[in-house]
Structure formats: C-alpha cells, structure tokens
Sequence to fold (172 residues):
Amino acid sequence: MTEKMSGPIDTIASAIWFILPAYVANAAPVVLGGGPPLDFGKKFLDGRRIFGDGKTTRGFVGGIIAGTVIGLLQGIFRAPLGEHILLGFMLALGALLGDLVSSFIKRRIDIERGGAAPGMDQLSFVVVALLLASPVKVPSWQIIVILLIITPPIHLATNFIGYKLGFKSRPY
Ligand code: CTP
Ligand code: MG
Fold:
C-alpha cells in the first residue's frame, strides 16, 4: 500500500538505496586502490595497455568487499539478509566490471589513463551493475530511469570532492 502511494522523493530515495553498493564499490578504489595493476602491465593486440595503471588489484578486490559490506548492512537494517548480501556482491562486482570495460574501451580508442570519456566514465559502472544484479532483483523501470539520470551528476560531484580532499589527481 505505502509502496503504491510513494511520490517522486520516495522513488529517488529507493533508487539510491538500491544502487548504494555499486556507488560505494565504484568510489572505494580511490581510497583502497594500489598494488599491481589488474592487467599486470600487459599490452593488448593493439600494443596499448589492456586496462592501464588506473585499475589495480587492491582497488578491484577492495571495491567488491566494500560494496558487499554495504549489502550486508542493508540486510541488517532491512531483511532479507541473504538477498541483500548477494545483491550487494553482484552490484559491486558489476560496478567494478563496468568500470573495467570502460577503461578497456578507453585504451582501445587511445584515451590515456585518467583521460575523460564523458558519459561512459559516469554510466558504464551503473549499467553493468544493474545487469549483473538483474538475476537477483530487477528494480522498477522508474528506478532504472532515475538512476540513469542522477548517476552522472552524483559521480561528478563525488569525484570533485575526492579531488578536493586529495584522493584523486583529477576533478572528474
Ligand atoms: N582505482 C583502482 N582500481 C580500480 C579502479 C580504480 O585502484 N579497479 C583507483 C586508481 O587509483 C584510479 C582511481 O581509483 O586512478 C580513480 O578511478 P578511475 O577514475 O576509474 O580511473 P582512472 O585513473 O581515471 O583510469 P581510466 O582512464 O582507466 O578510467
Ligand atoms: Mg577517471
């Protein structure tokens, strides 16, 4: 009943609640990243790096753990616990894989590590997160539309804050 009567603010809140593990998984590597690069310095067939130095093993694993922990906390606040943990893990894994796909494409079109790919930088992680989470849960179409609209500005704002706090070398 209350679900049916929810207004736009409730839908935006539900969208952020749903995608939170992906957001945290995407942001965590900025703080947790380090160690050998995920591609171990290897080059692709075109002679350029597979992913580049911006994708590290610690960032990848740390991001997945951070997002899964958010799912765990969500499950403690609002059951069912098991589904939230699984959802947190799939959203986090999807976010990290989506970010990797973006870096892979950027290297192929000769955008260097840290260079901007407007649109892809902000959306690839959330799109792949939704895809990987879909066997567990598909949110309403309204939530999906809201996520596609609010994620780019939220991503840009958090990156700018990360830059100001000294975690990132570039503001975007
Ligand atoms: N990071 C990491 N491991 C990951 C993803 C990110 O260590 N799997 C860290 C890196 O220090 C990276 C920073 O988080 O520089 C910001 O992430 P992102 O903007 O995605 O990487 P870029 O450096 O911009 O590299 P790319 O051009 O490949 O996106
Ligand atoms: Mg970047």
Remarks:
- DSSP finds five helices and no strands in the chain.
- The two ends are 41 Å apart (CA to CA).
- The mean pLDDT is 96.
